[in-house]
Design a protein that fits this description.
There is one protein chain. The chain is an alpha/beta fold. The chain folds into 2 domains: 201 residues, 3-Layer(aba) Sandwich (Rossmann fold), CATH 3.40.50; 181 residues, 3-Layer(aba) Sandwich (Rossmann fold). Helix content is 41%, strand content 18%. It has a 7-stranded parallel β-sheet, with helices on both faces. The chain has a 6-stranded parallel β-sheet with strand order 12-11-10-13-14-15, sandwiched between helices. Strand 11, helix 9 and strand 12 form a beta-alpha-beta unit. Helix 4 runs parallel beside helix 5.
Length: 389
């Protein structure tokens, strides 16, 4: 089965990395097209042996993208088009319908409460989303929370499949040698205490709370990994708070493992998350985690086994002093255990990427009405792709 994945960009980000992980495990014949902004993730996908097409779309209103996508889909004789992120979902579903592609699937990665992909949802954005959604067959929601928001918008429940994001825990396993080399590269002292955050530097991530909390945490370094429109404001806030020399902006990275290894406590203050992949990655690296929202954990925390399943992660309360107080407590706890990492909690294993890929593959097969074949191993899959040239 031929599958074309359409995504808005491939520079960095949770949805982009999720696609990379998925492609490495799907047994189907996959290619990718990025509408714009290819970068480190595009390079990683190509290195894995998957073809990546670049559309060079000039903006949200570049309607020529529809025609380019239509030609690519027709020439490639794709059985399934699978779209990711808002712009790709709108343009990709329209082009797939015009190209006569039989099966159209979308994954909704980033639908928050009044926000999509970090931006406020206008009436026009919502109307265009719903109009294009009707051109597809199934929308995959990455959490029950996202599925509920889709239903609230008016997407029929029968058109929604919940398939959570996945993680390859081995990719984030703690490595003391990697910790030392990453800290050396970033000019962080080996004995420094580091609080970290990973994600888009946008207002909704609330990294400003981490910068402000630093005033209450002497001799602590803050490491922020990612890029976004709020970076300059965060830099100025660090100056205003008198902590600029203790805030390190690492920018975007191709893979966060080294950065996580360099940290001692991970914090995700955002109240607007649709899954919380960075939280799971930090737990996989043995870090204590403080978070504002994480559906991947919140949906488990309603069960009696939650404390053992999500050990190492603590949800922050809404009160203004919650973050600095919780950070101080975690740093004291770390000191008491001699800086040792925490055991990886069971919740990480419950979101294994192999199971996610199997679920997505079964969805394709169900839509196509074909039995699921034997799933090839990762290396065999890449070798076959290489033979295609």
């Amino acid at each position: 089965m031929r599958v074309l994945h359409v995504i808005t960009g491939l520079a960095s980000g949770g949805a982009e990395h999720q696609l990379r992980l998925l492609l490495r495990r799907l047994s189907h014949d996959c290619e990718v097209v990025t509408l714009s902004n290819p970068g480190t993730v595009a390079a990683a996908i190509r290195a894995d042996g998957t073809t990546v097409h670049e559309l060079a779309m000039t903006g949200n209103r570049d309607l020529s993208a529809v025609g380019k996508l239509r030609h690519l889909m027709r020439d490639g004789c794709f059985d399934v088009v699978h779209t990711h992120l808002y712009r790709a979902c709108v343009y990709g579903r329209v082009a797939a319908r015009l190209a006569g592609v039989r099966h159209i699937v979308a994954t909704e990665h980033s639908l928050g409460d009044g926000i999509i992909e970090g931006r406020r949802i206008s009436t026009g954005v919502r109307a265009l989303y719903l109009a294009s959604e009707r051109l597809g067959e199934v929308t995959i929601a990455v959490s029950e929370q996202v599925a509920e928001r889709l239903r609230h918008w008016g997407v029929p429940g029968a058109r929604i499949d919940v398939i959570s994001n996945g993680i390859d825990a081995a990719e984030f396993r703690y490595d003391p040698a990697l910790r030392r080399s990453t800290r050396a590269r970033l000019h962080i002292a080996a004995d420094a205490v580091v609080v970290g955050g990973v994600g888009r530097l946008e207002p909704g991530k609330r990294f400003d709370l981490l910068v402000t909390a630093l005033r209450r945490l002497p001799n602590v370094t803050l490491l922020l990994v990612g890029e976004g429109s709020a970076r300059s404001a965060l830099e100025q806030l660090a100056v205003d708070q008198g902590v600029r020399d203790r805030v390190l902006f690492a920018g975007p990275v191709g893979h966060a493992r080294g950065m996580l290894c360099a940290m001692d406590v991970f914090a995700s203050p955002s109240r607007q998350e649709t899954f919380g992949l960075a939280v799971l990655e930090a737990l996989a690296c043995g870090l204590p985690v403080l978070y504002g929202a994480c559906p991947a954990l919140d949906e488990i925390n309603t069960t009696p086994l939650a404390p053992a399943t999500t050990a190492g992660a603590r949800r922050l309360s809404e009160e203004s002093e919650a973050l600095p107080r919780a950070l101080h407590a975690e740093l004291v706890s770390r000191s008491e255990r001699g800086g040792a990492r925490l055991p990886v909690p069971p919740v990480v294993g419950s979101h294994d990427i192999n199971a996610v890929a199997d679920s997505v593959g079964r969805l394709y097969e169900r839509l196509a009405g074909r039995p699921l074949g034997v799933r090839m191993g990762h290396h065999h899959h890449l070798e076959n792709k290489g033979l295609r040239g």
